[in-house]
Each structure stands twice: as structure tokens, then as C-alpha cells.
Design goal:
By secondary structure, the protein is of the alpha/beta class. It has helices spanning 5-11, 14-22, 33-40, 46-62, 77-82, 86-95, 110-117, 129-142, 277-281, 285-291, 328-337, 354-361; strands at residues 100-104, 121-126, 147-150, 163-166, 198-203, 218-224, 227-234, 243-248, 251-255, 271-275, 295-296, 304-306, 315-325, 340-347, 368-377, 380-386. A hairpin with a 2-residue loop joins strand 8 and strand 9 (251-255).
Length: 392
């Protein structure tokens, strides 16, 4: 259901608040939707009942991104999907030293509220009046002073702000991903009119760096607990190679480009190493290999290998039990002889999907499990058999 301004007005009422609280822990599975709707329709209009169910479901999904306040906040499906992870919001807000921040395409206000939480003066703008109404509600829930206004940011350049945070939509009206920065809504080229001393643009983590060549600045790839979540373009930073950032509850980690000697390419050793995805996107695999005293399996493959594991936040290690040039019959026989009945498959540079490979292996009832890493060594396909639990 798409929420309207009338729906938001109802959801902010005392009446709706009581109903939402009463149903906060109800079964929201698909099979229970019709009984719930029937029950709600005894006291609500069809639109009101639909708004309540939509909000209950979105609040349930929002617990990951808003662990403390989700039960009182309002959302739209698209805006919740676009909202950053709380560690990413806190990280960015902590880096903005300027006092007056403009949040363009602010959506439901998540980033505006993060900036306000560190005592920045914030104005959030969005073209969608429903999202602005929701953002105002969410600011009230968090007891934060943020100004939100409905505006088409394409019609005027921001003036008088120390920092501009720009988070354009990366999906079209049908929900499909937009892969070119000039097709973002609004397009990235809008930043050419921004005069603030700091301009930060949130981009898709899969952004093609060639599309950013004309803008300068620095791109930062951000991983949260090992999951690549976003890329940031720091427009007014000195032009430099991409940076990798890993955010965890225990602290933030960064890796920058530096000149290094070429990394050795070897056959698999005792341990397989899987770098954090921010390292991959920032092109820093060889730097990580040097830091971990590791080698590469193939110059085009991001798996590493080493004789010993190392405690690091930047990678995961698996003990290698065996490896072989890939031949389906040989691999099938190897697993059967060792009583392997289930496998988890990782792959890079290997044509079959994990599901296709598992189906072709025809595993039968063994009690053992393994991690299979299907990749290449010196251009040739190989299978690496590992313990199924990572080191540490």
C-alpha cells in the first residue's frame, strides 16, 4: 500500500497510536493478513486498516536500521530500503565538522536526524510531501530539532550551508536499480551547482568508477560488519584513489592506497582468505595480501592464500583441507569417499552457480559438511575444499 498524506495524518493520531501499540507483536505473516484486515475493518475504514497493516510490517522490518525507535516511527517501503545502516549514519555524521548541514533528498529523515544528533543545524529537503510529513514525525519521536521542507532541489542551488549531503534515488519508479549516476533521480551532475565547503554524495556500492572520473574528489566504499552497504563521494577532498572503510560496533577501520611491490601468485596453501568487500571495490586486494603475508591464487581473482591465519577485521580465513583442478566426476568421488553430504559453495571466476554445482554433485546422505571454493589458479578452474567454519 502507498501511503498518502491523509494516511500519515491518521497514523499520527492518538487513535492510530493506540491501535498500532495494541497490534505491535501480532503475527504479520501472509496467512494472517486477511484475518487481521477483517478484524481491523470492524473499527477502521479500508484505507485506515491498510495504513495500520503497512506500518506494522514496516516497523517490524525497520528494527534492524532503527533498533531503538522503530516501534514509534513511520516509514514508506522505498524510503526504508534507502535509509542507511545506523553505523553508517553515525559514522558520516561524526565526520562532518561544519555546523550547518543541508540534506538533499532527505526521504524519511534518517540522515538529517543523525546530523542533528551531533548538534548540527540541519535542513532536510525532499520533493515528496509524504516523506517530509514522515520525517517531521520521526524527528518528534527522537526529540530532535530539524527543519524539513518540501522542495524540488533541481529548481535552485543550495546557498549558505557548510555541508551538503546528497542522497539521490538509485531506483526508478518501478523499483528497478539505476546503474548510471546521471540517471539517478536527481542526477549526479546537480552537484556542480553546490557551493558548500563540503559535499558528500551517497552512491550505489556497485557504482562504475569511470562514471565519476570528471568529478574529482575521493570515493569511499563502506562496509558494515562485512557487508558492502554504500559508496560515498567526498567531492571536495583531494583527488585520490578509492578508500575502504569497515564499520563495526568495536570501531572503524580504514585502508588507503599505497605503493607496494607486486604480490606473489601461488597455489593454495594452508588457509584461504576472503577479503572484505570494501577492499575489493576499492582495489586494495594486493595491499591486504601484503599486510597479511599472503599470496594471490590468480591475478584476476580476489581470494588470497597464506600459511597461517591472522586476526584481522579485513578478512575471513578458512582452513584448506585439499584442492584439485576442477573435474566434476573427480570432485564428486572425492566428496563421496569422505562421507560429505552437504556443502556450502563460494565462487569467483567460476561459470556454474552454487545451486547448479550442488545439483550436479549429487551428494548422498553423508554426515560431513564442507565449504567448496570454486575459483581459478593461474587461469585454470580449481576446487578448494575447506572446513565449513571460518577461523576465529
Amino acid at each position: 500500500m502507498t501511503l498518502s498524506l491523509d494516511d500519515i495524518g491518521f497514523l499520527r493520531s492518538q487513535r492510530a497510536s493506540g491501535i498500532l501499540a495494541a497490534y505491535a507483536d501480532v503475527d504479520l505473516s501472509d496467512k494472517n493478513m486477511l484475518p487481521l484486515l477483517t478484524e481491523l475493518r470492524k473499527s477502521l475504514t479500508a484505507s485506515e486498516a491498510g495504513a495500520v497493516l503497512t506500518t506494522l510490517r514496516l516497523r517490524r522490518k525497520a528494527r534492524f536500521k532503527f533498533p531503538r525507535q522503530a516501534s514509534a516511527m513511520l516509514f514508506t517501503k522505498d524510503a526504508l530500503q534507502q535509509a542507511s545502516h545506523p553505523l553508517a549514519r553515525r559514522y558520516r555524521a561524526g565526520l562532518v565538522e561544519s555546523g550547518k548541514v543541508l540534506d538533499l533528498c532527505c526521504g524519511i529523515g534518517a540522515d538529517s536526524l543523525a546530523f542533528a544528533a551531533v548538534d548540527r543545524e540541519v535542513l532536510g529537503l525532499d520533493i515528496d510531501p509524504v516523506r517530509i510529513a514522515i520525517a517531521r514525525h520521526n524527528a518528534a519521536v527522537m526529540d530532535l530539532d530539524v527543519a524539513f521542507e518540501v522542495a524540488d532541489i533541481r529548481q535552485h542551488a543550495p546557498i549558505g550551508f557548510d555541508c551538503v549531503f546528497f542522497d539521490p534515488s538509485r531506483r526508478d519508479e518501478q523499483g528497478r536499480r539505476i546503474h548510471h549516476v546521471e540517471r539517478y533521480q536527481p542526477p549526479l551532475s546537480l552537484v556542480r551547482d553546490f557551493t558548500a565547503s563540503e559535499v558528500i554524495v551517497k552512491l550505489s556500492p556497485g557504482v562504475d568508477l569511470r562514471q565519476l572520473a570528471a568529478y574529482g574528489g575521493q570515493v569511499e566504499f563502506v562496509s558494515v560488519r562485512g557487508q558492502l552497504t554504500e559508496a560515498l563521494l567526498w567531492l571536495h577532498h583531494p583527488k585520490s584513489p578509492p578508500k575502504a572503510t569497515l564499520l563495526t560496533e568495536r570501531g572503524d577501520h580504514h585502508m588507503m592506497y599505497r605503493d607496494i611491490d607486486p604480490v606473489t601468485i601461488t597455489a593454495p596453501k594452508d588457509w584461504l582468505i576472503e577479503p572484505d568487500p570494501a577492499i575489493l571495490r576499492a582495489g586494495l586486494v594486493q595491499q591486504l595480501a601484503q599486510d597479511l603475508n599472503a599470496a594471490m591464487l590468480d591475478e584476476t581473482i580476489a581470494y588470497l592464500t597464506a600459511e597461517n591465519p591472522v586476526q584481522t577485521s579485513w578478512a575471513r580465513f578458512w582452513r584448506i583441507l585439499d584442492w584439485m583442478p576442477f573435474q566434476l566426476k573427480r570432485l564428486r568421488r572425492y566428496l563421496a569417499d569422505r562421507g560429505v553430504g552437504s556443502v556450502t559453495v563460494k565462487k569467483r571466476g567460476f561459470p556454474l552457480t552454487p545451486q547448479e554445482l550442488i545439483a550436479r554433485l549429487r551428494l548422498k546422505g553423508g554426515s560431513q559438511s564442507r565449504l567448496l571454493v570454486m575459483t581459478r589458479h593461474c587461469g585454470k578452474p580449481i576446487a578448494i575444499i575447506c572446513d565449513d567454519a571460518p577461523f576465529g
